[in-house]
Amino acid sequence: MNKVAQQGGGVLADNVLPIMTGRGGAELTIVVPTLNERANISLLVDRLRQSLPLLEWEVVFVDDDSKDGTMLAVRDIAASDHRVRGIRRIARRGLAGACLEGILSSSAPIVAVMDGDLQHDETCLSTMFAVLQRGEADLVIASRYQDNGGADGGFTKLRSNASRLATHLARVLLRTQIDDPMSGFFMLRREIVEAVAPRLSRQGFKILLDIVASSPTTIRIREIPYVFAPRLHGQSKLDSLVALEYAGLLVSKMSGDLISTRFLAFGLVGSAGVVVHLSVLHALLPHGLSFAVAQTAAMFAAMAFNYTLNNAFTYRDQRRRGWRFLTGLLMFAALCSFGVVAGVGVSTLLYSGHSRWWVAGLAGAIVGSAWNYITNSAITWRRQ
Ligand code: GDD
Ligand code: MN
């Protein structure tokens, strides 16, 4: 037997020098979600360079295919600075999902999430890192509502009130003691996220709250104050849909993940669809149409309405556009027709078994909706 076979990989390991790069892996990964932030990228990297001179850090921009050339700006800098990299996501939207992908792309023991629009104070990063490294906490949140922190400059009055209400709801409903559970600026041990990653919602803005609420063990949390600065370039992407998604997250966490945010949205759209259905029927009947014709038209109208709304809202991270919008409508209609058959089947069966009319009707509606939801999630808006 020759020497290599006898000693296995040991021979190679002894004789070949490791490639020396002169630097170890990053100690800290800063994940920055971006959507049309081109003008802010180089400013942010400059600020990181200045505020973290003693750390081995890297920054990962996770971009949802911005149309303003954000990714070009990232690549420009990355070409001459190994600490900068970017992930370009295609046909996907969602702040939480982008943050999650950035965190999971890291191999550093500690990761931070920070906005890309300069509203978060980068000078907090080294303090946050020190707290984690000393083992005093597992998660450090830069919080806007602590003694010296504040958000007056960065917030409109409406935003400020809405944010306070959301914070209050989260504290009461999810029983968290965190002062600013809505913060988009935090740092934690990567293993905490790894453990709960499959359970996290990829939509909405509330990744921090989701991580804390989903974690099976108690996380030691520390909050430090900072001032939420006004946005200099570009505009906020927080809209009323984001607020609705937040409400969905609260319900879904309160139900122990039994009811997903998506299912709630699907149900909400479906209920609105019933109103559309009845309105169309009501509008058409007086025009001398037979009931069957009016009912068919009403069903198609409701179906198109439901599809359009679900595409725009419920599945906006998988939104179908152009031709795919039309083919999606056909799939949706086909799947929902089966849903009707299943629903009618179940309710007829129950009714003939002497259930009350409304029990039979409700059971049919639930079976039909569940079928529609499950099949459309898996087929019409399946993950690409
Ligand atoms: N990749 C990706 N995908 N990035 C996104 C998306 C998205 O769908 N939506 C927003 N972003 C990026 C923005 O480009 C920015 O860097 C960061 O996420 C925050 O977005 P803003 O639109 O500036 O949010 P904001 O300033 O209104 O909200 C801030 O305050 C909230 C609390 O009220 C953020 O810090 C939120 O995280 C925070 O919850
Ligand atoms: Mn912002």
From TrEMBL:
- What are the residue boundaries of the GtrA/DPMS transmembrane domain, all occurrences included? 266-381
Q: Cite the SUPFAM superfamilies for this sequence.
A: Nucleotide-diphospho-sugar transferases
Molecular function GO labels: dolichyl-phosphate beta-D-mannosyltransferase activity
Q: Which UniProt keywords apply?
A: Glycosyltransferase, Membrane, Transferase, Transmembrane, Transmembrane helix
Pfam families to which the protein is assigned, alphabetical? Glycos_transf_2, GtrA_DPMS_TM
The Glycosyltransferase 2-like domain is annotated at 29-195
Task: List localization entries.
Answer: Membrane
Membrane topology per record: Multi-pass membrane protein
InterPro entries reported in the protein's UniProt record: DPM1-like (IPR039528), Glyco_trans_2-like (IPR001173), GtrA_DPMS_TM (IPR007267), Nucleotide-diphossugar_trans (IPR029044)
- A biological process from GO: polysaccharide biosynthetic process
CC terms in the record's Gene Ontology section: membrane
**Similarity remark:** Belongs to the glycosyltransferase 2 family.
Show the PANTHER family listed in the entry: DOLICHOL-PHOSPHATE MANNOSYLTRANSFERASE SUBUNIT 1
From the Swiss-Prot or TrEMBL record, give the protein name. Answer: Glycosyltransferase family 2 protein
Q: Supply the source organism for this entry.
A: Mesorhizobium erdmanii
